[in-house]
């Protein structure tokens, strides 16, 4: 089954936008992106360099580079890339960050399932891999938006119709900053827009060891943690907005059970080699 050729009848043009920070992971991410795009009719591939180091990464043939502002992490990078490529109303977009070349490195089975979904005729839905909180008790809300389930935005695909439904805008900067005023005061770091359950989940993740780069909140760490928290909220709000607009989600591993089973088996059997890309989620 996994050896079947993937054919596509693309109803609109397709572009890829990769946001890079670390040179090594970005170089690996470029290679992964080329595997994902092969034979699927992608017209342009754009690296948005959100760091000075990534601006020097060698560009393979067929790739373009844009220097990003890093105003809102990968979200501003993707938005700037969309503006340059002129996708709104005309094209679909695969949006990726450089963790796909590091801790989010996808197995061959996950790549196959994603390609299979992209290769179908573009429709109104969007494609991505779903994350859920470890504790499903309580409601995770930002304002009145339900955030109990979300697509992890290290790699997701928005067909033209879905981009149109969003008005071409991936994030609402004012809403994100309203949810996360930031600063070094833990009690005031999140606003009342963020429900107590979500505030606890994010605090555990950012300040108390849940994230691999977690650190205690203090004056020195406040800017870094504010930036990360706003990117997380932008991710949660994107899924909630699309759900509210009635845009269906196509989750590749739910739709391809054999690939999902093989991916889980691969994760259990794969040796933990030092420095090797992991297939486990740890954005």
The helical percent reads 25-40%
Arrangement of strands in the largest sheet? 3-2-1-5-9-6-10
Query: Could you list the spans in which at least 5 consecutive residues all have pLDDT below 50?
Result: 1-10, 272-283
Number of strands: 10
Tell me, briefly, the overall form: globular
Distance between the termini: 31 Å
Give the count of helical stretches: 10
Largest sheet: 7 strands, mixed
* Strand/helix succession: EHEEEHEHEEEEHHHHHEHH
Mean pLDDT: 89
| Structure class | alpha/beta
Which percent band covers the strand fraction?
A: 15-25%
> Whole-number radius of gyration?
18 Å
What does this structure look like?
38% of the residues lie in helices and 18% in strands. With 283 residues, the protein is of the alpha/beta class. The strands form 2 sheets. A 7-stranded mixed sheet has the order 3-2-1-5-9-6-10, sandwiched between helices. Strands 7-8 form a two-stranded antiparallel ribbon. α3 packs antiparallel against α10 and α5 (173-179) packs across α8 (222-244).
